[in-house]
Design a protein that fits this description.
By secondary structure, the protein is of the alpha/beta class. It is about 25% helix and about 30% strand. The protein has 5 helices and 13 strands.
Length: about 200
Amino acid sequence: MTGIIDYGAGNLKSLCNTLDAIGSNRKIIRTPDDLDGITAIIFPGVGAFGDCVRHLKNQELIKPLQEWIQQDRPFLGICIGFQMLFEGSDESPGSSGLGVLSGQVVSFPEIPGMKVPHMGWNHLNVRDTKDRAWEGLGSSPYFYFVHSFFPQPLDESIIASTTPYGQPFASSVRRGRLLATQFHPEKSQSAGSRLIRNFLDEAN
């Protein structure tokens, strides 16, 4: 059973549709009790970092999520669900993320001719194509992005892919059974469905 974190602003419909299409059982997670029977968590997202932190605190989900990840249980973070893994964000000074990964979420620099937010299709430079997460996707798959901020991991060894936009940035990370992406696989058609299926196949 796959649990989907609902913090009040996530893009649940597209993700639910993708999970339904690939035949995965799913359950919406709003409280710690909802985690019972869950074998993998997907944390999708749109919205502001600080708002997300506040909702998770109100739902008493901060500690359960930290413990889940520290136990190396299957976890997929998407967009704000990726950013929340880090210590904090320039978007919301004073708001602490889950802090399970070291680093800060930063904004794109101002570069003439470069639009922010970064919106639309862009390619990845996958560092380890033998990683099961990227099975069937090749070394430079295209995914859909919508974001103005991105994490800068202090441990560069966890960076699973980079994407060029003014400068290369970490578009995904991988540590054990944790996978997190700045792009939206649930909006990335066949490539996104394949990535989610790969993640769930590995989780089982």
